[in-house]
Amino acid sequence: MNAFRKNIVSWLVYDLGNSFFVTAISGLFLGQWLILDNKLDDIWYGAGFSIATIFVLISSPFLGAWSDRIGKRMPFLKWTTIGLFIFNGLVALVAVSNIPMSQRVFVVLGLTIIVQCLYQISLIFYNSLLKEVSTEENRGKISGLGEGFGQLGWLFGSVILLPFANGAITLFGEPGRHQVFIPAFIISTLLMLPLLFWFREQSQKKEQFQKTDDCQQNSIAKKTIEGIKQLFNKNKNVGIFLVAFSLISDIVLTLTLYFAVAMDALYKINENTKVFIFAIFLICTTVFGYIFGKFGDRFGHKLILVISCFILIVITTIFFFSSSLGILYLVAILAGASGGGYFVLSRSLMIKISPQNQLGEYFGFYSTFARVASIFAPLVWGNNNFIAKRLFGFKISSCRHGDGWIFSNWDFDFIKG
C-alpha cells in the first residue's frame, strides 16, 4: 500500500474509531443513563455539552490559526488524540467503579465534558486533512466516504454496545448502560491508532518554519482576531455560510443529544427498537452521504446542500408532531439521508469557498460556528422540558427549532459556491 492510500485508509478509519466512543457518550447511552436511569434533569446533561462548546468556541480559531502558521495539522491531532485516549479511559473506569452512584454520575459527566472538548478540537485538524487525501475533482466523494465511516462508527457502536447496555453482558460492577464505556474505549483506541503511525502529512517549505516570530502566540492571536473580522468583511461568502451552518448544526447537534430521550417520551419504544431505528438512520446517513457527495461533485455542492436542508426541515417537524411507529421509520430514513448529505456537502463546500492557505484557521471557525448556537440550545431544551413536562407535555420543546430552519435556508441562498 503506497503512502497516499495509507493516508486515505487511516483518515477514514480514524473517524470510524472516533465516532465509536462518541456513540457511548451520546443520547443513546450516556443521555439515557443520566436522565432516565439516574433521574437527572435534562438541563444537567445539556449544560455539560454547553460548557465544552464554550471552551471550543474560545480556543478553536486560535488553534486553527496556529496550525496554519506552522503548516502542520498532525502534531495537533496527535496530542488531542492522546488526550482522548486518556480521558476516554478515565470515563470507562469511573463508570464501573465503587464510587457511590450519586457522585459517580457527576464525575462521569465532568469527564465527558473534557472528552467533548478534545473531540471537537480534534475535528478542526481532522477536517483540514481532507485536502491531503483528496483532489478538487473527488473531494465530495472522499468527504462522503469520511462521513460514511463516521456513521458506521455510530452504527457499529450502537449494535455492539447494546448487549452491554441492556444487561446481557456485564464486565465489572452492576449491570446497566454505564457498562458501554469500557468496550467503547478499547475499540475506539484500536481504530484511531493507525492515523498516528501511518499518516504522512505533506512537508512544507523550510522558509515557513524559519519564521519563528510569526509563530509566537501574540502574532497568532492577532491573526485570529483579524480573521474573524474578515469573515464579515473580505470573506463575506464564508461568513454567510457559517451563520447558516451554525443555525442548522444547532438543531442537529441538540437532537443528537436528546433523540433517545425524545423517542422514549413521544413513541414509548423499548431499547432494542431505539437501536434498530438508530441503525436505520445511520445506514441511510452512510449510503446517502456518499451519494449526495457524488451529486454535489456533479451538480454543485450548494444546490444539493440546500435540498438536504429542506428535507431536514420537513422531516424534523414530522418527528415532533407524530407518535406513530410507522412514521418514525420514515423519519429515520429521510433524516438519515438528508443529514448525511448535509454534513458531507458542508465540509466540501467549506474547503471550496475558504482561503486555501488558511484552511486550519477557517476550519477552526467551522467548528466554532457548528457549536456556537448549541451553547444555548441544550440549556434552552433542558429548561423548556423542565417546565413543559410539568405543564404541556414533551412536544412543546420542538417549537424552538422552527426559526433556525427558516433563517438558515434563507442564508444559504446568498452563498456563492
From TrEMBL:
PROSITE patterns noted in UniProt: MFS
InterPro entries: ATG22/LtaA_families (IPR050495), MFS (IPR011701), MFS_dom (IPR020846), MFS_trans_sf (IPR036259)
Compartments where located: Endomembrane system
Topology relative to the membrane: Multi-pass membrane protein
GO CC list: endomembrane system
Transmembrane segments annotated in the record for this chain: 12-31, 43-64, 76-99, 105-130, 151-173, 179-199, 238-261, 273-291, 303-321, 327-345
Keyword flag Zinc: no
Domain of life: Bacteria
UniProt keyword list: Membrane, Transmembrane, Transmembrane helix
SUPFAM superfamilies hit by this protein: MFS general substrate transporter
Main location per the UniProt record: membrane
GO MF entries: transmembrane transporter activity
Residue ranges occupied by any Major facilitator superfamily (MFS) profile domain in the UniProt entry: 238-417
Protein name: Major facilitator superfamily (MFS) profile domain-containing protein
Organism of this sequence: Candidatus Kuenenbacteria bacterium RIFCSPLOWO2_02_FULL_42_16
